[in-house]
Specification:
The protein is an alpha+beta fold. Helix content is 35%, strand content 15%. It has 20 helices and 22 strands.
């Protein structure tokens, strides 16, 4: 008889197909923050929520209760518990039907891997065979992990992590006794005990688990009584939805991945999302807000808030406004000043005229308040965001050169169709994204180097080389100037460097700020581009920026001053740098500017002065480089990397480099016309 049974079992096992875990291993895609915290999960292709989980991520008390209730001898048996199997067989013989299956956790996993509707002897035998196979292939830890990932909890919720999030709103790393008992009880009858539909049945099942684990010494009777007093959840909670836009973009970029780890800081992301939602609601219907935070050291995106709420259709929440092309208003003015500082056209203490003027005969910019400040320093003009001085400097720098520099730094710049760069770009006559604006501003905190964005910790950075937006001294001049910009109402001055912008017609309000550590950028407006009366960057976006910095935490750190920065007053500047003259007619000034040119050295030249092995930090022999200019109106001023060359007031001058390296050589005449070249000294 035993031989016949053994042969029959062997034949049964031989007819089974190979164990296939392909479908069982399908998981929801999860997007994680930099520390591994869950930002947003996505359902599987068939609509189930099955999140990855291991026993190491589960409250140990929960695991103890599970084993005590479902499979006390889990650690000892090979997948089948002989004692439980004999008990179940005796019940079957007495009653003529299966009363209890004697299922181990391994057998339950087998049933989940290969679902069978019928409760029959062949189905039970198949489970037993598969349970042994599973334990041999995966081991105890693997089987337990598979149970935690596959156990049903009602509806599309599968696995302990999805259930813990759905019913308690948090991961199962730490659960109360009541919560753990409910999650132990649900898989036995997931639809009949769903707490969101049948809370009474869920409570009774939970209490039975508490009684049994108390009887087996897992918890004390007092702990069981306290746990029974806790209510059961009456509904399901929404799954986490942090950084919805960033998560969608990451999944779209690589749909095959099941776990994606972003550079985002989950705590900061949640705080800034709440800030954007709160401020947008206060501003009125239809308005959206976006916030981006960048780590200045690495270029990592620390927070990306694309809208006040992904599901808020009234604010077009599904649109990620961090990537939308919009007019920046005055937000790009600091880069005009940076180029002017770099090329020796101006210094923060250079005096500029803020008076009514027409450029090219027709363009007559006005200040936002329709007033004029008269003669002001470049520092004050930038801090007050005066329009006429910015346009004056852009004319000297060159609009085409300005746009080319922004694009070379990696920014996507959109100009009106069929138009060349003109002076209106100084005041927002172009389009740029909040992301690119934040990147460009981060360059001021990094000595003029704009970092490539890093969005994922588990993927290489695209474009690994930094791009230069300006030279280190010019970058610091701008950072130091913007740190003195008047703060918004009720905010402290001198803590962060920041600039605001308001686009034409009150369609976009911007504020971008930075310190040594981080750059934060804010946009407010309507996604459809309609005008919003009173939508002013300093009034609407700047308060959000300062609040965002407070939520980032820590004390703001100033950008360090380069050793070769020229810190002086207007009177201490070389005469041609003290002011930009307006007394020469613009047509004449333009002609003179066209004739002033550095004849030697040529732009891009490599000049061997025998300085190999040294650098511009010092320690090199005293070797002179001849400088020569053509045209212009004397006196001339020669500058190298923003510093004046001693005795350089004529067309010919000599400069003694301190070592090998790159150097920017500039010359400016009495009218403000200038030219510059970049050379490599060797």
């Amino acid at each position: 008889m035993l031989a016949v049974a053994t042969f029959a079992l062997w034949r049964f096992v031989a007819t089974l197909p190979p164990l296939d875990l392909t479908q069982a291993n399908l998981r929801s895609t999860v997007v994680l923050d930099r520390d591994g915290g869950l930002l947003r999960p996505f359902a599987t292709v068939d609509g189930r929520w099955r999140l990855p989980l291991t026993a190491a991520q589960v409250d140990p008390r929960m695991l103890a209760m599970l084993k005590a209730y479902e499979d006390r001898r889990f650690a000892a048996h090979p997948g089948i518990d002989p004692a439980a199997t004999l008990r179940a067989a005796g019940q079957w013989l007495r009653h003529g039907r299966i009363v209890s299956g004697g299922s181990t956790l391994s057998m339950q996993v087998a049933r989940l891997v290969e679902p069978r509707a019928a409760r029959s002897l062949p189905a039970k035998l198949r489970q037993m065979v598969r349970a042994v196979e599973l334990e041999r292939r995966l081991g105890k830890a693997g089987v337990l992990d598979l149970y935690l990932q596959l156990a049903p909890y009602g509806g599309p919720v599968e696995g302990l992590r999805a259930a813990s999030l759905a019913y308690f709103g948090r991961d199962p790393a730490r659960l109360s006794f009541a919560e753990a008992a409910l999650l132990v009880a649900l898989p036995q009858a997931p639809e009949a005990r769903r707490p969101d539909r049948f809370p009474g049945a869920a409570r009774r099942a939970r209490d039975r688990v508490l009684d049994r684990v108390a009887a087996r010494g897992i918890i004390t009777p007092a702990e069981a009584r306290a746990a029974k007093a806790e209510p059961v959840p009456q509904g399901r909670k929404p799954f986490p939805m942090l950084a919805a836009h960033a998560a969608e973009a990451a999944v779209a970029a690589d749909p095959t991945l099941r776990s994606i780890r972003l550079t985002l800081d989950g705590r900061l992301q949640a705080s800034l999302e709440a800030l954007a939602t709160e401020r947008a609601a206060a501003l009125g219907p239809g308005l959206s807000a976006a916030i981006l935070a960048l780590d200045n050291r690495t270029g990592a995106v620390l927070a990306q808030v694309g809208s006040p709420g992904h599901g808020d259709a009234s604010r077009s929440g599904a649109i990620d406004m961090t990537g939308a092309i919009r007019s920046p208003g005055s937000a790009l003015k600091p880069f005009i000043y940076a180029l002017a500082f770099e090329q020796g056209i101006a210094h923060p203490e250079t005096q500029l005229d803020d008076r009514p003027v027409r450029f090219a005969g027709a363009y007559a910019p006005e200040n936002f308040d329709l007033g004029y400040q008269g003669t002001v320093t470049a520092r004050r003009a930038l801090q007050l965001s005066l329009n006429v001085p910015a346009v004056e400097l852009l004319q000297a720098v060159g609009a085409a050169r300005f746009i080319a520099r922004l694009r070379a730094a990696g920014a996507r710049i959109e100009l009106p169709r069929d138009t060349a760069p003109g002076l209106p770009v100084a005041l927002g006559g172009l389009g740029i994204t909040l992301t690119d604006l934040a990147r460009l501003f981060s360059g001021f905190a990094r000595g003029g180097l704009v970092p490539p964005l890093m969005r994922r910790l588990d993927a290489p950075v695209l474009g690994s080389n930094d791009a230069r937006i300006t030279e280190p001294v010019a970058a610091w001049y701008v950072a130091d100037t913007l740190r003195g910009a008047p703060p918004p109402e009720n905010a402290l001055a001198g803590r962060i460097a920041y600039k605001t912008g308001t686009s034409y017609g009150y369609r976009d309000a911007w504020a971008v700020g930075f310190d040594r550590r981080v750059t934060l950028a804010v946009w407010v407006g309507r996604p459809d581009g309609n005008a919003v009366p009173g939508l002013v960057g300093r009034v609407v976006a700047a308060p959000i920026l300062f609040d965002a910095f407070a939520r980032f935490g820590g004390e703001p750190e100033a950008v360090p001053q380069p050793a070769d920065a020229l810190v002086t007053t207007t009177a201490g500047l070389p005469p041609p740098l003290r002011h930009i003259r307006r007394d020469v007619p613009k047509s004449v000034a333009a002609a003179l500017s066209a004739t002033l040119k550095i004849a030697y050295p040529p732009d891009g030249a490599r000049i061997d002065l025998g300085l190999a092995g040294t650098d511009l930090a010092g320690g090199a022999p005293d070797v002179g480089l001849a400088l020569k200019a053509l045209g212009g109106v004397p006196p001339l001023i020669w500058m190298v990397d923003g510093l004046p060359v001693a005795g350089g007031a004529r067309r010919h001058a000599a400069w003694s480099p301190e070592g090998a390296g790159f150097a920017r050589i500039s010359v400016m005449d009495a009218t403000g016309a200038s030219d510059s070249v970049m050379v490599r000294i060797e």
